[in-house]
Batch of 2 targets.
Target 1
Amino acid sequence: MLKTLGKQIREFKADSIKTPLFMILEVIMETVIPLLMASIIDDGVEAGNMQHIYQVGGFMVVAAAIGLFAGVMGGKYGARASAGFAKNLREAMYANIQTYAFSNIDKYSTAGLVTRMTTDVTNLQNAYQMILRMCFRAPASMICAMAMAFFINARVASIYLVAVIFLGFFLILIMSLATRYFTEAFQKYDDMNASVQENVSAQRVVKAYVREDFEIDKFHRASGNIYKMFKRAESIITLNAPLMQFTVYSCILGISWIGARMIIGSQLTTGELMSLLTYCMNILMSLMMLSMVFVMITMSMASARRICEVLEEKPDLTNPENPDYDVPIGSIRFDDVTFRYNKTSESPVLSHINLEIKSGETIGIIGGTGSSKTSLVNLISRLYDASEGTVYVGGKDVRSYDLETLRNEVAVVLQKNVLFSGTILENLRWGDENATEEDCRRVCRLACADEFIEKMPDKYNTYIEQGGSNVSGGQKQRLCIARALLKKPKILILDDSTSAVDTATDSRIRKAFATEIPNTTKLIIAQRISSIESADRIIVMDNGHVNGIGTHEELLASNMIYREVYEAQTGGSGDFDENGGEN
């Protein structure tokens, strides 16, 4: 874990080294000042030597100035190192998440990833700054003060040693008790963030069903769980203060009692007693600082483990050693393919699929809910890998291709259409960042998106709100189709991506595909038979198996599922799952 986190310090190594050096310099100056003060009292004030007072006082001013400068510079470099460390952590996590396969992403909730990149990183940032400053300053201060105290008078200084052992034992006990609660508390942040995310993204549904009170109660429970965990942890941590005060006052009383008797017996001077009392405070304050560091480290350990999980997660899908960078044609072949989302699952999602699709063919795919239509096409662009068997694109195993090359040649319009905040042109150029405006207009005509874009005030410069909330479902689908076409793919997969457009527009889109991109292999998943009846062939899926394959006429004559769906949609309710998929 330390190795994983340490890699993110990178360009801030110099700042991370300068910070403790300045902290140690500040400690040295603080250690020297009490000695100088003792000299002023013993050799200046009591001896009536004003020249000595001025001379040593000047040294004290210089030492204080150096200490002040060291403290300021330590704070400056510590802040820069910790903020840079946090920046690198966020960037490294975000970059690694981009390499994840869908199977990797499925392991984490969106809220969990957001918490890791915000709350958990902030915890590590604060802990790192405290480690650089306090973790070096406090031990150095304690060691220097202890050494000087024993140098002045070993008998009195032994009181410090007893206090340090006593306080150290109880601090370790307190930290160990608090650790468990902090670990549980940060896991609860995921639940709270998930509640917020779900509520905000589904505001229309919440308001439509008047479920505001229910959502408020759910958030209250999630927030309350965090409160309870932190209250338990903090109630233990608060024992630090009374324990520290008890130790400090006990030391002061002990030193004053023993020191006064030694002064009377001429075994100790007044200045030395003042120095010992100052060192007493330095030692005990150093222990207090260390306890604060332990608290922060305790809180950040859970965060560190959660961050390392994301950084150390290896993508399930990787490039081969010598990847192929050329997809010659858009042919597709499934050779006895079986697929499971969970490798340990007994029942596969797809079972023994054998298909062959020629380049340029238009293939319709239909089937009931849960019949694994989407799972089938996800294997083509290698969003997942087949558990058994082989998927071929262009005559080559998809696992032999460079991932970016393959996915650039296989454009997928998924079921959940996503637009990003930005103009229409910026969204379209996700398909090709170098596309001209004329290229964008051409693909929009193919996707029948130009008709509504031209009616907008800013046309192609119209701003799309986050998630495409200011366009309708049908408009969003057409923009996503246009974006996919801009890639000029060899294979185009439309996963139920015209469900929100009217049948007339759907028909025009299919005709445009037939005339404008005849050499592109087109796979169209649909619930409406009218969307795929003109396809070269239609695949009927049923419970992870290919139930039938053929033209519209052939399936009407030979496939019971397809025939029942057709009859339901042309003469009944039109609901695919009402009758289809049961046989």
Target 2
Amino acid sequence: MALAAIMIGGGAVACGEAQPQPIAARLRPYWEPALEVATGSLDVLRALSINSNAFARGSLSTDQFLLSVEAQWPSISALSQLVIPLGPAPDDQETHTALVAVVDALVEIGPTVRGYRETEQPERLMHLVTLQQRVREQLGAFIEGIGPGLAQDGLRARLEAIGESTIEAWRVRKRAVLVGPYQDEAAARASLAHIVDDLRLSPTNPGWVEVARFADPAAADAAAGEWLLRGVQVRVEDVIDLTFNVTTHRAPERQSWRELLWLERLDFDPTHLAASELGEQVVAVARSGKVASFGADGGLRWTRDMRMPLARVSMQRHGELLAVHGFDVQLLNLAGNQVWPSPFRPDNQLLEQALFDDEGTRLVVRSTNASGVGRVFAFNRQGQVWGPTKSYISAASVDLDKRSGSVAVGSSNRGENQVVLIRPDGNLQQRFGVDGDILQVIFTQEGDQVITLTSAGLQVFEAESANIRTQLRFPATAAARAPRDDILILAGEAGVGSFTLDGTEVWFTPRVRARAVYPMNDYVAALVDDMTITVIRSDGAVLGDATTLAAIRGVAVAPGLNRLFAVSAERQLQAWQLPPVAIPPQG
């Protein structure tokens, strides 16, 4: 087997960073644009390096890796346009030659990627890593050639911040499972889109779609058998693949909050995500019943197969208890072991919400159906305590007072909109009408007031007397309470705003139109579209966007750490660490 050991940098994409302003004694007409090319090349190398390391470690699939490389092409093209009109520096031919070699190596990345997509020759993937090494070496030569000064110091620091690692790549023989044949890619998608995520026709087996590769021939045969049971034609072919080993010599220095704190690849399609207050436990679930738990550093802690369909996961504040639920609900402890001998099915409807009290002694769940009509049930660690709620209560939203154990149920039934308060023992405590169809109900921290978000706006009621305290006609479709106080975060088409309980505006950001909001101690994460989470500081200033390469399936936050998590359709779990609030927004 052939072995390639290649030194590359390791880091993450620096997005929205303020560019350093190196000053050289000889700026114009050559050195100013030359330094601009060098700085831009460092940014591209940083992006390529982190993605190469993630690919070699298995966090990125081959297609995701190629997409991440292709995403750098506009930057590479701009650099080539900058370097073309530059003639050799009158006093430094060798340094100019090194700069041209940097851009030439970057430009060669484009045809290398295209060549791999056409042939799937593993040598072309290895060549991508070799090109990055060439870029790094020539950048080093350019930096040394410009001589001592602020320009050299700044560029050298940026190069060292990328880090350094060794990737060893071996060619290995694997067995590929292909299904087909199909007339074209459209026909393949029509047949397989609900089964295969990243679908494309194989360039080496025309008309066939490669669905998996296996090092173990028996595993390939078993997978082929499953496809045969679906009534699909299957082929199993020998292919040459690569296996990698990555050794980090110098870890990259994170230079922006947008650079991932960590990234982990899942072996299932995630549907939802939850995190504990301090990020000690982050849990993703799949519709198939798979559950995976990760620690604060992104390391996999445990996996489980619940053997029941799952839609969501909910977590006790410190991660000590989990409720994984679909049509059934099952409690798991911190180690992933089942608390109940078997799952509960309160009724035959999907369980939309599950809420723990702070101590993990009480769990409240709300079911729903296609009409949005649901019921509410309460459990402790032994099983069901009360429920279902009465037939006149059509549960659209539910909240649990974490201290007293009382439950607030928002009910919209045949034009009758009301909030029903239920005592911990299941008996009626209070009920009162509200204006508009109910979207959300939220207890205040002390549990003495109930916040209702309706189609008519926001209303705050005293829990004991049912007297209305505040009315706010903000056109919101989602609301959340800050983790440490009763500041409200409202989101809708008008933007994202922060308000006190008496309706006083704290801040308002009209440019951010969010579907959901996730407050942290010093930030608010706002899901604005399928692949973008906008982060807003506690003073209303927009910090920037966290983005994914595929549709986001779940968002979670560790409020006490100001840490943000997302799972997406590309089977990736990503974590971002937001900066201390003293650091100003980064454009």
